[in-house]
Write a structure and sequence with these properties.
Length: 255
């Protein structure tokens, strides 16, 4: 009986040890990060903010969405006076409004305008959006950045549903302890050139339970480097600061 008890306790100990050391999957890491960043609140809310000279609004209601941007066009070809332009993406597609009237946009420009609107909304609420159907996630080797340990996750997109820039690659570094997305990088290849960017999150604030950050936006001197090289280049101080990505006048209204 005594030996049986020892064996049972040993098996329980080994089982607990295996559970504790079992590595997390990319999906679980992303799920945790989305949750602590306000994922459920984002999924059913209206978020307004200003970015540079444009106003953005995102309405989401558990699958239904309307993403728009609005700005004043001083050089519009449509009118001789100051023109208000509003670009809208929803579940049905893209539409541009000029002074509140819908207009027809050239087919070649629709993907460009759509990508421009979507990219700002995409970055504004990361990591929300990384569970979209077109997203593929893979866990790479962990890294240390500024003395903190990070999971490394690479994200690619399916051509179907992945948008105009589906061939772009993204990499996200998520903190072991806080589960927050603190750094990201991406590569792009467009008609006017290709490049790599590395972003460092700062100015963290929580508004109505949703986590928002601004970013320092860097680039490497050599575009031939790999995304996995960027954390070390960042720590070495060899990345060039290009700009700051700052969201202003943020409001969150639950739907």
């Amino acid at each position: 009986m005594k030996y049986s008890l020892v064996i049972i306790l040993s098996l329980l100990f080994l089982n607990c040890k295996q559970e504790k050391t079992e590595p997390l999957s990319a999906q679980t890491i992303i799920d945790n990060s989305i949750e602590i960043s306000g994922g459920e609140l984002i999924a059913s809310s209206t978020i307004d903010f200003d970015f540079r000279d444009k106003h953005y609004k995102a309405f989401r209601n558990n699958g239904a969405f309307i993403l728009d941007r609005e700005f004043i066009d001083m050089t519009s070809k449509y009118f001789d006076t100051i023109t208000n332009v509003k670009d809208v993406i929803n579940n049905n597609g893209f539409q541009r409004f000029v002074n509140d009237f819908p207009i027809t946009v050239e087919d070649s420009m629709v993907p460009r305008y759509s990508a421009s609107v979507n990219s700002v909304h995409y970055f504004s609420v990361l990591p929300f959006g990384l569970n979209d159907l077109a997203v593929n996630k893979e866990l790479l080797d962990d890294v240390s950045i500024k003395g903190q340990n990070y999971y490394t996750i690479i994200v690619t997109f399916n051509q179907d549903g992945g948008g105009e820039d589906f061939e772009d690659e993204f990499m996200y570094w998520i903190n072991y302890e806080t589960h927050t997305l603190d750094y990201l990088a991406y590569s792009y290849n467009e008609s006017d050139g290709k490049g790599i960017r590395f972003r460092e999150a700062y100015n963290v604030r929580h508004i109505e339970g949703v986590r928002f950050v601004d970013y320092n936006n860097y680039k490497p001197e050599n575009t031939a480097v790999k995304l996995t090289d960027l954390p070390q280049l960042f720590e070495n101080g060899t990345l060039k600061l290009l700009s700051k990505i700052e969201l202003e006048n943020i409001t969150v209204t639950p739907n």
